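Q: My collaborator sent me two sequences in one message, no labels, and asked for predicted structures for both. Can we handle them in order? The first one she listed is below.
A: Yes, handling them in the order given. First sequence, followed by its structure tokens:
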Amino acid sequence: MDQQTQSRLRTWLQAQQIIGTDELSVKALTGGQSNPTYLLTSGTKKFVLRKKPDGVLQKSAHAIDREYRVIRALKNTAVPVPDAMVWCDDESIVGTPFYLMSFLDGRVFVDQSLPGMTAEQRADIYLEMNRVISELHQLDIDTIGLGDYGKREDYLSRQINRWSSQLSASTIPVSDGALRLMDWLPVNLPPSQRAALIHGDFRLDNLVFDSSEPRVIGVLDWELSTIGDPVSDFAYHCMSWHIPPSLWRGIAGLNLSQLGIPEESTYKQKYFEGRSAIDPSAWRFYLAFNLFRMSAILHGIGERAQQGNANAADAVQTGAKAKPLAELGCEIAGI
């Protein structure tokens, strides 16, 4: 964010009585491939700004207005989120719409093997992740004011159509694995699940943990949240058990028992306590679907990188992971 933009932002923050002095520090936060995120500091105050990327964007992408709505709705629920402070759709301030939320001072873990921890500490972190996603999927969407946050029917088929359409409209070549999944998924849909609020990108590094306790103090990055199939959301979270760390953010092939990290079967059993069990063939579908979806998302990141419109510096390398993830999806699907 250049100095001129920071000056406009400072003036706007003062007019909104969010800050009371001319002092404003703006620091880009890393980790997101999608929506540029900044830490704003003014005196003792710290808060976070999330904005859309600059440039031409795909329709429905980078839905920060939905992020803002959902974290407002989740306040005072069992799912911890930052405080939603203010929304601004005036593009003259920072170039795109943006919102402000509270800054959570805690720990964010990127490596899912959790290096430097004891086996007991790792087990506690994974148990807490399981608890939070379970709480999310048990929320009453009508009670929290999100009954109209998305369509309640045909989530999987609509998602397959959405990501297939985005891949078909891509300006760069689509991998053979992604094309095979585009054909296979629509004709292998499992029975519909109940509608629930789903995060869409629930993974370890989108959680902020307390500075000392194995307790989540905030779930971040709600851009892909909607009303949908909770099992699909959970299966996305469980892709880690199938992706090797050499490919991307996974724990496949690691000695989980030695690390203290539960096996996928144990982790699934904990989540499905009190819920209907999922048929193994349906579980394979959910994993293949999510690998296809993730591949499509990373393909889009690679496309934006070629257009010079990617937020993260490693967008090219991240986009290159689209092909092997699609191939892994095909392997799990058996196609």
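Q: And the one she listed second?
A: Here it is, processed independently of the first:
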Amino acid sequence: MRLLICRPQPVPEQSGVDRMPNPYFQFKQFTVYHDRCAMKVTTDACLFGAWCAAESQRSTSIGQRFLDIGTGTGLLSLMVAQKNNGIQIDAIEIDKEAAMQATDNVKASPFAAAITVHHCDITNWEKGAYDIIFSNPPFYEKEIPSTQQGKNVAHHGEGLRLESLFDIIKAKLTDTGLFYLLLPYKRRHDIDKQLQQTGLFLEKLVVVHPAVENAPFRLLLKGGKRLTPTQNESLSIYDAARAYTPEFVSLLKDYYLYL
């Protein structure tokens, strides 16, 4: 008798759950290793990457120059590149180990020609304007910092404050370009304040719930320099039975192995 041994797909780390993640996450078209990165592959990051890819794919008038601020593992760039042919992504990462791991992940993928990882500080990056800017930036300003410096930069915004991020987006975005951000729901007031101060405008705002019965915990933002009516939407990752919602499946089915 021949035994078939199947290797299960590692599950992305759930945001807010403190546990040791798997060293990699296998997607349908690429693999993301994250053992050398402070920012791991999380469910909300995967959702954001799929949403960015889908939204930018619909923006047919947008050019081909994309900027990923704080690429970490390279996850977002890989997800966006899978859905957008002919684009060029500059993926910026300040942490050396993370930049090296992102480079390895990109080189091992089918999208190596579309993504260039740069180990540098975004505040020192000078390479013209971009048509699309996306970022999963540090979340936890003004909260108790970690004892690990890498996690402080990745999670607590020591290297890039929210106001600085919006200033950078304003400076590096073309007049008709779009930005996409993943931010905590509790920062909504700060986000509105920074948008007003920088003269940027929201085109779409998606409130994300972990499950249908839970309070919101994330915001997906799409915006630019042009004033347009804001589309307001909501999305839940899990339904009441703890299964992925149809909206989540629709976004992730081209990425997750078992969807």
